[in-house]
Each structure stands twice: as structure tokens, then as C-alpha cells.
Amino acid sequence: MNVRLYVWQRGTAALMAPLVLIHLAVMFYATRQGLTAADILGRTRGSIAWALFYGTFVAASAIHAGIGVRGILVEWAPIRPRAAELTAIVFGLLLCALGIRAVYAVVSG
Length: 109
Fold this sequence. Notes:
3 helical TM bundles of succinate and fumarate reductases
């Protein structure tokens, strides 16, 4: 793996660590309070803060996973490095698109 990808993957991991902790804390709080999915969606509807939080989470996750998939394909799959890179890019973009769609659904209602 080249240095640029190494730095990007470590940077996205460092960004995701607190996001995961916050997400888990919110989920534990919501379940302890007995909130239903409808209650949670009612609280997130129209929230720019939640859109930014989960949008950041989606972007970091998609970049991190795409780089990881590239590394796995280059090392383990019987395909050329360029094909592994293109596959990883498509995978990362697909994750990003699906994540953005989910964030939109949660925030827009």
C-alpha cells in the first residue's frame, strides 16, 4: 500500500473512532429510554446536525472500506492491481451512495 492510501486509511479510522462511540452511546440511550424507531426518526427529521454527523460517518466509512477492499484484492485476489483499484473505487462509491441515501431518509423523513 502506498503512503497516501495508508495515511487516508489511518485518518479515516481516527475520525470514525469517536463517531462510533457517539453512535453507540446514542443507541444505548435510545434503547434505555424505550424510544421506538418512529420516536428516533421524529427526533432526527430536519436535523442538520444529525445529517452532518452521519454524513461524515458515511464518507469516512466509504473511504476507509474502499481502501481496505483494495488492499485485500491486491494481496489475495488473482486480479491485476489496476482491476483491484477500480473494483475498490466502485465499492467505495456504492457504499457512499447507499449511506447518503440512508442519511437522507433518516433526516428528511
